[in-house]
Design brief:
Blueprint: H1 3-32, H2 37-45, H3 49-67, H4 69-77, H5 83-100, H6 102-116, H7 121-149, H8 162-185, E1 190-193, E2 196-199, H9 203-228, H10 234-251, H11 259-267, H12 274-314
Antiparallel strand pairs: 1-2
């Protein structure tokens, strides 16, 4: 490959995601102008308190489950950070990751918090890698199973036949099984790529990864389904969520803003009015994105203050005297 072609390809890779994101946001903005927003607001107000409480409870449970992905990396890297601190760090980073993108929460913030707790950068990178494997391994077998059992009804412009969707589902399940087989029978216990290595878990831990990752996606689907109040089938909601997740990753839009809503409206248009679908997705966004972020921000500030205080004590800085009564 010539130098000119290499440069052109490198330029294309940098610009293509942003161009795709701009196109998607333009289409979403055009679609948003056609929405009857007063009707959406009335649909939000019609939701019961019980639905909101259940959604928030499931959201918090989901965060605890996703945070446990970092325990897989803890086990495989043998780092000494305690389980509670590992879970707390992972939960904070996940909230930032969802709202601000993977580069901020998934990578940047994780590196900062873990390294300030004494972990090395290579160790943190491996923890992140194992967490990502757990997440997408679960996605592969859950999405594959949904495509095999109940292929979603896609709008005309996206439409694929059920045969094609089931074939894609079979490939996804097969990829998940290949990973499990590799972890079970491979004699090579490390994967190498560009000078970096990643330990392969044993069979039991790999199976646990698959169960944790799959349970996470199914639990997130249950949050949205609970907000629909049973008016849409669970597998239909889960299929729309899984499709929206990939669309959000491909477009690089932080928090999948607009993309999530557009995919749900498109895939569930035959089941419910667009205003009701939008209302449900917006409440889901508040429960799963914004509320955890509101909790994560002071937790992050407290974590930073705690580390700074301990660093100051170790460096011999004079600590201020108590000011009680002043």
């Amino acid at each position: 490959m010539s130098l000119a072609v290499q440069r052109a390809w490198a330029w294309f890779k940098r610009i293509a995601p942003w161009a795709l994101a701009a196109l998607v946001l333009t289409l979403v903005a055009r679609q948003a102008r056609t929405v009857e927003w007063p009707e959406v607001w009335r649909a939000v107000q019609a939701m019961s308190l019980a639905q909101l409480i259940i959604a928030v409870g499931l959201a918090l449970l989901s965060y605890a489950l996703v945070a446990s992905f970092d325990l897989v990396g803890r086990r495989l890297t043998c780092h000494k950070l305690s389980v509670p601190r590992t879970l707390g760090t992972a939960a904070i980073c996940y909230a930032f990751n969802l709202n601000f993108g993977a580069l901020v929460g998934g990578f940047g913030l994780r590196l900062r918090l873990y390294m300030r707790r004494g972990l090395s950068a290579p160790t943190v990178a491996k923890v992140i890698a194992h967490s990502m494997v757990t997440n997408w391994l679960g996605y592969l077998w859950v999405a594959g199973a949904v495509l095999l059992v109940a292929p979603p009804r896609l709008p005309g412009s996206w439409a694929l036949s059920d045969l094609w969707l089931r074939a894609i589902g079979a490939v996804m399940v097969a990829l998940a099984l290949v990973y499990l087989a590799l972890c079970t029978w491979s004699r090579q216990r490390e994967l190498g790529w560009r000078g970096h290595t990643l330990a392969l878990p044993g069979a039991r831990l790999a199976l646990l990864q698959a169960l944790l990752g799959g349970a996470s996606w199914m639990l997130i689907g249950a949050i949205v389904w609970s907000l629909f109040g049973g008016r849409v089938g669970y597998l239909d909601v889960l299929g729309a969520l899984l499709l929206a997740a990939v669309a959000g990753v491909l477009t690089h839009v932080p928090a999948g803003l607009g993309v999530l809503e557009a995919v749900f409206v498109a895939t569930l248009a035959s089941a419910l009015p667009a205003t009701e679908v939008l209302a449900t997705v917006l409440v889901y966004r508040a429960a799963y994105y914004l509320l955890p972020l509101a909790l994560a921000m002071p937790a992050y500030a407290w974590s930073e203050a705690g580390v700074a205080s301990r660093t100051g004590e170790r460096s011999g800085e004079v600590q201020p005297l108590p000011t009680k009564g002043i």
